[in-house]
Design goal:
The chain has about 550 residues and is α/β, with parallel strands linked by helices. It is built from 19 helices and 15 strands.
Length: about 550
């Protein structure tokens, strides 16, 4: 569940921290006090689009931090996403918003906004003011039914997505190959020339690198030869002043005093070693010099070979490996065109087989939906009756349409409803009013709540378009949900607010000539006064307070 919310420098909020309880958390306040900022800050922490205009005037950044305690299923989901979890199964989400960028962190580890959005799905379920509008879109009904079915539907849809990807690939290939015979002949002539051009080059792996290395050596051979000849002379024994001649002369002179002083012997031995090393080096230089003979014919042949290789690289790839791969691919295409009819027959067979596999999966998914339609209709009807739909009729219609399959199957799903006795059921999107849609969506939330791993449900003004007895029914339904879920609810209705386990007041005030929004937990007496305000009285009379107190007692009785 959501343990706490910390907001800093966001819109009208200077800095606020709120700790939530595990049951019903109610947020109330005057219109314009900034209630939407609180829900908006939760959305921001969970990856919603951030605008630099949200940063409080004069501040360098805005910060939102959420702390969740996770249940076992949520821990598994977070670990599957390879995200860290704090000790005690705590998860800390942080979003720092700066001009031009924002930084998202999970337990201190940087993540993308996209990762946060994916994570948010298993942390809480957000019901915004306009979410009930999705009930006006028949395209959303299929997803709702599949959510009710659960893992079985998700598994089949994952298979469908893969199969349809393969099917579309085959379709695209068939479309691409549907060219006339003249065009195929042109392609074949070009491919034959290109394959022949590469084959004629008789390429060897890495030969371009070896040839370029040898070419550089030959191009620079004159300079190399001059230096090698000079070094051989300087270290030899033939030229006057060479190192070899000097060392030899020094060695002869040193040996002439060996008989006069025995301490000269070690020095003679060292110089003898130097003379031997220099002699070996000079012979190696002679061998290197002899290997540097420049062959004009070899150079021209090498130059021509490099021209061939560079020409092929310019057409088929940057390396010999790329060129050989291009040759292989072109040969495959050529073989396919040479056996075009057989290839097309094979593609058509593959397309047919893949379509059969897709239709089989669609049939399985349709069967699950038809099987689920009855129980779902019954549960939704019961939930709607609890929400003051007295004579409601509701059913889920599943109509298979095999020629219109997609990764969601081939069913057309319709929600049919009648809220008036004697009236036939009709599509929900055609007849439901705004207040009815809000309650119907709450009915869905109620039915789906027990199937969800999400502990926390957030409702932003669920009371749109309702009042009186209906409002009390909605309040009772939310109170029932709060027994097994954490509810965070912004409301204008006293009936719903009376169900609070923790009541928060959102206020706007002016301090130091600046407007600021604050949120604080109310005491029992303060909560009673806020209920009285919500009941609509301009004055806090004894009768209004008694009315509010009676409403609180009724709420406690219902919850107990």
């Amino acid at each position: 569940m959501l343990e706490s919310l910390h907001v800093k420098n966001l819109a009208l909020i200077d800095e606020q921290e709120v700790s939530f309880c595990g049951g019903m958390n109610i947020l109330t306040g005057e219109t314009g006090a900034g209630k939407s900022i609180i829900i908006g800050s939760i959305n921001l922490a969970l990856g919603a689009k951030a605008d630099k205009e949200l940063i409080r005037t004069g501040a360098e950044y805005a910060l939102v931090e959420l702390i969740f305690s996770l249940n076992e299923q949520q821990c598994l989901k977070v670990k599957e996403m390879e995200l860290p979890i704090e000790e005690g199964n705590m998860l800390i989400l942080q979003r720092k918003i700066m001009p031009g960028k924002s930084i998202c962190r999970v337990c201190g580890e940087s993540v993308s906004a996209a990762q946060l959005k994916k994570l948010s799905g298993c942390l809480l379920d957000m019901y915004g003011q306009h979410e009930h509008q999705s009930l006006l879109k028949p395209s959303a009904y299929k997803m709702m039914v599949d959510d009710y079915i659960g893992e079985k539907a998700a598994h089949i849809k994952a298979q469908l997505k893969s199969k349809i990807g393969e099917y579309k690939g085959i379709e695209a290939e068939l479309k691409e190959q549907s060219t006339d015979s003249e065009e195929r002949a042109r392609q074949m002539r070009l491919l034959e020339f290109e394959v022949g051009e590469i084959e004629a080059a008789a390429l060897q792996p890495l030969e371009d690198e070896q040839a370029e290395k040898k070419y550089r050596r030959l191009v620079n051979s004159k300079k190399i030869k001059e230096i090698v000849y000079m070094v051989h002379g300087l270290t030899g024994y033939e030229e006057e002043g060479s190192a070899g001649a000097a060392v030899g002369h020094a060695l002869r002179e040193l040996k002439s005093i060996a008989g006069a002083d025995e301490e000269a012997q070690p020095l003679i031995e060292q110089l003898t070693d130097i003379d031997d090393l220099l002699n070996d080096f000079n012979r190696s230089m002679a061998d290197y010099r002899d290997s540097l003979e420049f062959d004009e014919e070899e150079f021209r042949a090498l130059e021509e070979r490099l021209n061939v290789l560079n020409h092929l690289k310019s057409k088929y790839g940057n390396t010999i490996a790329d060129i050989l791969k291009a040759q292989e691919e072109k040969q495959e295409t050529l073989d396919r065109l040479n056996h075009f009819d057989e290839y097309m027959d094979q593609l058509i067979k593959q397309e047919k087989q893949k379509k059969e596999e897709i239709l089989k999966l669609c049939s399985q998914l349709s069967g699950l939906r038809i099987q689920a339609a009855g129980p779902l209709s019954k549960e939704l009807k019961e939930a709607m009756i609890d929400l003051n739909f007295i004579d409601v009729e509701f059913s889920v219609s599943i109509v298979p349409e095999e020629e219109h399959f997609s990764s969601d199957g081939y069913d057309q799903v319709e929600f049919l409803i009648s809220t008036n006795p004697g009236e036939a059921v009709r599509p929900l999107w055609q007849i439901a009013s705004g207040g009815e849609l809000s309650r119907i969506m709450l009915a869905f939330k109620t039915v789906f709540a027990d199937r969800d791993e999400t502990d926390t449900l957030v409702f932003d003004e669920i009371d749109t378009g309702i009042s009186g007895k209906t409002a009390w029914k909605v309040a009772k339904k939310l109170g029932g949900l709060s027994r097994d879920h954490q509810i965070i609810c912004i409301t204008h209705l006293a009936q719903i607010a009376s169900m609070a386990d923790e009541h928060f007041l959102i206020e706007k005030s002016v301090r130091d000539e600046r407007t600021a929004t604050s949120i604080r937990a109310l005491s029992q007496e303060e909560s009673l006064n806020e209920l009285a305000r919500l009941l609509g009285s301009g004055e806090m009379t004894k009768a209004v307070l008694e009315n509010a107190r009676e409403m609180l007692e009724n709420a406690r009785t219902v919850k107990n």
